[in-house]
Amino acid sequence: MTQSSPMSPPLSVRTRFAPSPTGHLHLGHAYSAWLNADFAARHGGHFLLRMEDIDGGRCKPEYEQAIYDDLAWLGFHWPTPVRRQSEHLADYQAALDQLDAQGLLYPCFCTRKEIRAEIKNSGYAPHDLAHHSSEGPTYPGTCRHLTPQERQQRHQAGTPFALRLDMTRALARKGTDALTWTDLEAGQQIATPEILQHVLGDAVLARKDIPTSYHLSVVVDDHLQRISHVIRGNDLFLATHLHRLLQHLLGYAPPLYRHHDLLTDENGWRYAKRDNAKSLFQMRTEGQAPEDLMTQITL
């Protein structure tokens, strides 16, 4: 994709809003959706809706339907069919095969309990990637050092496993050339996935229960959907360094980015599902006017 100057859009603008149907949307979601829809509208582009529904244990059909209803109630429009990640596992498997052919993946048989125990015994403190991370503490690389025989034994025993990116090998394949990406807020950025190696360890690219993960899916989806601008919260700024590395390894051109501030409530707390932020569903069923909410969001 040929990119224009950092502050001007390319010829074809495509943005996306990609919620997970693991609960009801709140005002923070509405704000992010509006930023994407507004940017696309102002540049004669397209605003897409995508469902990140790979978490089979938490995603529910009623939440997905509520997302459609909430966004339509607020006046958003999007083309159909909506891409649902659970229906495109073959796309993620193809990307995994590409990375595996480069020798960049290895099976991880560890449980979270085992990872935490090893971290505790090693004497260093765990970190998390962004506040919303569900990936747990920094992975110490336990299964990276298993011999082929040990891996085969665990496979034969039926031990569940995830697939992790061998960051050391991935960084070696990147070489000495700088990876860059452009943020419409922060300007030109140099990707430093080396930092993530200390924060996250070897990232999970395929979970034990499904052959993909957030990091892999979002990179593949944005590429296949030809997203020109990824407009999302600044809580994902750090993750973009990893996503830029994955784009390089898979041969994808990077989109432009904008990491926006997170909407907060009257107490200065960011809206979050886990904090039981008041949902758009509640506001809608209570009879609040969508025009008033949109005014609140856009201000």
Automatic annotation (TrEMBL):
Entry's family note: Belongs to the class-I aminoacyl-tRNA synthetase family.
Family annotation (InterPro entries): aa-tRNA-synth_I_CS, Glu/Gln-tRNA-synth, Glu/Gln-tRNA-synth_Ib_cat-dom, GluQ/Sye, Rossmann-like_a/b/a_fold
Domain annotation Glutamyl/glutaminyl-tRNA synthetase class Ib catalytic: ranges: 13-298
Organism annotation: Paremcibacter congregatus
Origin: domain of life: Bacteria
UniProt GO BP: glutamyl-tRNA aminoacylation
Keywords: Aminoacyl-tRNA synthetase, ATP-binding, Ligase, Metal-binding, Nucleotide-binding, Protein biosynthesis, Zinc
PROSITE patterns: AA_TRNA_LIGASE_I
Protein name: tRNA glutamyl-Q(34) synthetase GluQRS
GO MF entry, a single one: glutamate-tRNA ligase activity
Gene Ontology CC: one annotated term: cytosol
